[in-house]
Amino acid sequence: MKKLSEKEIKKVLEKALEEGRKVIPDGHVATYIPQLGLVDPNLLGITIVTKDGDVYSVGDCDTRFTIQSISKTISLAVALELCGREEVFSTVGMEPSGEAFNSMVELDLNSNKPYNPMINSGAIAVESLIIPKASFSDMLLYTKRFCDDMEITIDDATYASEMSHSSRNRAIAYLLQSKDIIKTDVDDSMVLYTRMCSLSVTSRSLANLALLFAMGGVSPKTGERLISAETCRIVKTIMMTCGMYDGSGEFAVEVGIPTKSGVGGGLLSVVDKELGIGIYGPSLDAKGNSIAGKVMLKYLADELELHLFS
Predict the structure, then answer these.
(1) pLDDT in tens, 111-132
(2) Phi, psi angle pair for 284, to nearest 5°
(3) Closest CA relative to residue 70, chosen from 102, 104, 118
(4) Could you read off the pLDDT of 284-297 as tens digits, one per residue?
């Protein structure tokens, strides 16, 4: 990472926000979940938290939004910790799917298990592994600790909206059951998956989570190990290859920062051993990624030399 003064970093963030705002009209909020369709598409904020504890925020950083698919990183980490690598990856794969996040095509035609844990089929399968070992209350506590945000709670309106429009995810879950991938109750897996997606966070929450991954699972604030180093390595690697859905390859080339997106507009970005980045921008591109967030990260990667291979 390029070394800059506090004033210079703040200036870079403000410029990144300015660049991001330019492309907001080119995107759209998620409407297939009606509650998400009510969000103001012009909201935009970014937070950076460094390993030394410095916090830089610009824009709508205190606005709470639902974590959506970024929760897949938390569920994967917990599943690896509770179940072990062998059990997790005998249930889900590690490869990019090349399909949309809610696709069933590759699962039905090409594979007997989900391609990776960052698409819906993979995440629902991961939740089925967690169910015998941890309750939603446990998962909520993990999330609060990982994000260093004890105010995180479930957004009831979004949860209800998602559950009432969950036909496709239910179809995926029953297909997984028919292939003997899900061995627990299908409804239990669906409920846990949807609850995790409906957790309410801020860009600061995501930056804290990203920093925890960047530091190999050790809290920079307390020095406590919350996640094993091996689990963090696996999660970061899969974020790099699969975290931006079927746009992951292009994003890896252009930006080069392990990142996970969510259709709520969040982006979780890990600059290894250096800092965590959290972004909120609910206007999405055609692949379901924050359109302004991607522009902002590209700008930061260039200006601060954050690309993994810089």
Answers:
(1) 578 989 999 999 999 999 999 9
(2) -110, 155
(3) 118
(4) 999 999 999 999 99
Mean pLDDT score of the chain: 93
Q: How many CB atoms lie within 10 A of CB 156?
A: 11
- Site of tokens 């989900």: 114
Residues 163, 205 within the same domain: no
Question: At 85, is the secondary structure helix, strand, or coil?
Answer: helix
Q: Indicate whether 54 belongs to any domain.
A: yes
How many domains are there within the chain?
2
Tell me what pLDDT residue 310 has. Answer: 83
Length of the chain: 310
Q: CATH code at 165?
A: 3.40.710.10
Domain shared by 63 and 88, yes or no: no
Phi-psi region at 29: left, alpha or beta (left = phi > 0; alpha = psi -120 to 50): beta
User: What does the block give as tokens for 231?
Assistant: 């689990």
Structural domain including 33 reads 6-67+201-220+227-304
> What residues are annotated to the active site?
69, 72, 193, 245, 263
In this structure, are residues 282 and 290 in contact, taking their beta carbons and an 8 Å threshold? yes
Residue 1 lies in a domain: no
Tokens of 19: 């660049």
Same-domain check for residues 176 and 277:
no
pLDDT for position 275: 96
